[in-house]
Description:
By secondary structure, the chain is mainly α. The protein has a single domain, classed as 3 helical TM bundles of succinate and fumarate reductases. 84% of the residues lie in helices and 0% in strands. The chain has 6 helices and no strands. The longest helix is centred in the N-terminal third of the chain and has 32 residues. It is elongated, with a radius of gyration of 21 Å.
Amino acid sequence: MGGLRMSAVVPNRVSARSHTAFIAFVIHRLSGVALTLFLPLHFFALSQALQGAAALDGFLAWADRPLLKFAEAGLVISLSAHLGTGVRLLVLEFAPWRDWQKSLFAAAAAVCLTFTLFFLLRLG
Length: 124
């Protein structure tokens, strides 16, 4: 009896997960989760500003720690990565030239790293 081989039905998951589109998908999802986790802290900072200058100054003094500055750099990376991969997805969806996918991913990564570098240089 001739049956279907499983390898013919199930694609190779390792090669599918190392594809550029999958990597961009993972980066987009992880950066979105990181930005979502940041929102409560951001809203707390805004609430401190509404309570007055002293409350905001106290929060800003607390936030002026090296570990939090490092976390801010991670936030900038997440924001620029989410923006870059999101724009890449929009371009791929609406533009006819889908063969440039790797180039668009590389451009998104370059933009992400450029924004992060500018941010880190301003911290010093």
